[in-house]
Amino acid sequence: MPKVANIFLRSCGIFLEILALAIILVAFLIRSSSFQTYVAQRAAMHFSKEWKTQVQIKKVDINFFERVYLEGVSLNDRQQRPLLKVASLEAIVREFGTEHLILDEIVLCNGQVWICLKNRFYLQSFERCTPFPEFGG
């Protein structure tokens, strides 16, 4: 009987060591920029298919889930007109969960944002947030 218990305890010890090693490996993998970029590009491909448009991200770096750095971001609308093209984007995350994300600040560097309006109502709604003198805001 002690021999069986000894084998069982050694097996459990080996399993726990492998589990700890796997957890450490996943922790380092999540922090690597290349893995983050791979996951972001897969997500961009998913959203491109779901939204029937082009979403592109070239590089991602997430620091402690507080700051997110994106490079080479582009987003088109459904008519394939550009909505957003940014060389680099920095977002400061205040809070996130499975179904929400609250940002404190977004900084766009060397970027362009296009707004296409089909109806005057959308313009009036947008003017409440940011006045545009060329539109009489």
Give an overview of the whole structure.
By secondary structure, the protein is an alpha+beta fold. It is 42% helix and 33% strand. A hairpin with a 3-residue loop joins β2 and β3. Residues 123-137 have low confidence and may be disordered.
Describe how the helices and strands are arranged.
Elements: H1 2-31, H2 33-51, E1 55-56, E2 59-63, E3 67-76, E4 82-96, E5 101-113, H3 120-127
Features:
elongated, 42% helix, alpha+beta, 137 residues, 5-stranded antiparallel β-sheet
How large a portion of the residues is in β-strands, by DSSP E? 25-35%
Q: How far apart lie the N and C ends?
A: 85 Å
List the total number of helices: 3
Order of helices and strands: HHEEEEEH
Low-confidence stretches: 123-137
Tell me how many strands there are: 5
Radius of gyration: 23 Å
Q: Describe the sheet with the most strands.
A: 5 strands, antiparallel
- Average of pLDDT: 83
Taken from the alpha-carbon principal axes, the silhouette is: elongated
Structural class: alpha+beta
Helix content: 40-55%
In summary, what is this structure?
The protein is of the alpha+beta class and 137 residues long.
